Amino acid sequence: EPRAGWCVCAAPPGEGGPTQAQVAPVMRLLEGLSTLVDAAAAFSERVGLAPQGAPDLIEWLPRAAASASRPLGRLLRLFSPSDFVDKAAPFAPAHGVSPAFDEAVAAAAETDAALELSPDDPEVQARADECAARRGAALTSFILEALAILSDSHAAFAELVRAAATSDVLAGFGARIRDLESRGGVFCRPTVLDDAHRDGNPALLLCGAWHPLLTLYLPPRDVVRNDLDLGCGGGECESPHSSRNTTTSGTLVLTGPNMGGKSTLLRLSALCAVMAQLGCRAPCLQMAFTPFDRVFTRMGAEDMLVEGRSTFLVELQDAARALDHATRRSLVILDELGRGTSTHDGVAIAGGVLRYLHRNTRCLCLFATHYPSLCLPELGSGHMALDAEADEDDRVPTFLLRPGRAPRGSCGIALARRAGLPAQVLRRAAQISSANE
After folding, report:
1. Model pLDDT for residues 228-248, shown as the tens digit of each residue
2. In the chain, at which end, N or C, are there fewer CB atoms within 10 A of the end residue's CB?
3. Per residue in 175-211, pLDDT tens?
4. CA 141 to chain centroid
5. Adjacent-strand bridge partners of 367
6. pLDDT tens digit string along 369-393?
7. CA-CA distance, 354 to 337, in Å (whole number)?
8. What's the pLDDT at 308?
9. Distance between CA atoms of 208 and 238, rounded to whole angstroms?
10. Which of residues 282 and 343 earns the better pLDDT score?
11. Residues 6 or more apart from 21 whose CB is under 8 A from it?
């Protein structure tokens, strides 16, 4: 609507009014709304008549389309795509749409013909100027009428857009979930936990959870599934896929090898929380949670050098936002905070942030780190396990979450070997690592 109003004001005075390009946003708006009305009709056909007591969501789009159809029909009678063939040409409504404009155009055509015969006749020139003014006034009146209908119908059109957008998202969820389920994926309807029975303590329980984006590379049935219990205290879980990692503290410090799946597990936890609160089914066998007011994340490595912000500064600013704004009802995801400075400073900062979130904010927190000293007794700890049956140097991640601190650290030298570093470098690195341990 703002662009539709702009077309009247933007027309240069004395140049025949607005061009087709200036009025075209109105036509594009009407075409888009018309498409939404057609989509609502198709939606109603597909869904059928909603049974009595059906959720309002099912009836929302058809009801919004019905409310918007009448003013939209009036506007579509005023504008037609044929009015916008030559975008540089002056805009004019189609013949028969505006009688006042048609009369002004006819009168102007007569005076223009007379002016060609008598170009120096002042009376004819005066009539021509009067007809041009009538034509401009009729065009302005026509556009203002259309804008008045647009303005009066704003609420109905906005409701149609909201209903269509919501239905589109939910239908997309449904279509994607059906596709993944047909290929072995598992989804559940999450259970919302009652705060009154938990004394206000937040909780998140995921059983047999798996990340849907991994299906871009693997069949859904081959994606590793994990259990996660934050604050639930060992409630029943139907998952046969992994041993439970339970903590009543609400904070889990996650350790384990490089490329062992820590970041994926963190992302999966945040994804399940967001999907559940959107009303979507979650990618797991079972899920229970207390509603979250916000989800804070500090993941990945990114700098803003043009703005004078290093990677480490960006990480600290992300962490500061969580510390400043997180509440007891928040979920905070922190991945390897403290990497961009000395080990001493990194451990100190990461430990300070972790303790503040646990003791002051008391929110749910997943904290992935390569600093084993952060695995404090008062916090829950878990690690991404290695294949115990393989040889010491050939152990690969299982991507399964197990209780306790990682028994073999971060396995950085094993990853260096995989990356192709020279054997001499690897031997020396192993010696230094053993000495430091």
Report:
1. 998 877 555 655 554 555 556
2. C
3. 999 999 999 999 999 999 876 556 778 899 999 999 9
4. 42
5. 253, 334
6. 988 888 888 888 898 888 765 555 6
7. 10
8. 83
9. 8
10. 282
11. 84, 87, 88
Q: Are 104 and 131 in contact (CB under 8 A)?
A: yes
Cα separation of 353 and 6, whole Å? 51
Strand 380-386 to strand 397-403: parallel, antiparallel, or no bridges (unpaired)? Answer: antiparallel
Concatenate the DSSP letters of all residues of 382-437 into one string: EEEEE-TTS-GGG--EEEEEEESS-TTTT-HHHHHHHHT--HHHHHHHHHHHHHH-
What spatial distance separates the first Cα and last Cα of the chain, rounded to whole Å?
Answer: 67
Output phi, psi for 303, to 5 deg: -115, 165
Burial class (CB in 10 A: 0-12, 13-18, 19+), 234: exposed
Three-state DSSP class for residue 165: helix
AA identity, residue 32? G
Between 97 and 16, the higher pLDDT residue:
97
**Strand, coil or helix: 262:** helix
When pLDDT is cut at 50, 70 and 90, the band that residue 214 belongs to is very high
CA atoms of 145 and 98, how far apart (whole Å)? 11
Question: Is 378 in contact with 355 (CB distance < 8 Å)?
Answer: no
Question: What residue has token string 């109105």?
Answer: 26
Give which of 165, 218, 206 is closest to 366, Cα–Cα: 206
Rounded to whole angstroms, how far apart are CA atoms 171 and 187? 15
DSSP 8-state symbol, 299: -
- DSSP assignment of 331-389 equals EEEEESTTTTS-HHHHHHHHHHHHHHIIIII--EEEEE-S-GGG--TTSEEEEEEE-TT
Which has the closest alpha carbon to 404: 381, 373, 387?
381
385, 397 Cβ separation under 8 angstroms: yes
Measured distance CA(267)–CA(295) in Å, rounded: 11
Question: Are the beta carbons of 280 and 176 closer than 8 angstroms?
Answer: no
Residue 287 pairs with which residues in a beta bridge? 206
How much of the chain is helix, strand and coil, in % rounded to 5?
Answer: 55, 15, 35
Which residue in this structure is represented by tokens 């430091």? 436
Give me the amino acid identity at 228. Answer: L
* DSSP per position, 58-124: HHHHHHHHHHHHHHHHHHHHH--GGGGSSTTSBP-PPTTT-HHHHHHHHHHHHHHHHHHH-TT-HHH
- Are 257 and 397 a contacting pair, CB within 8 Å? yes
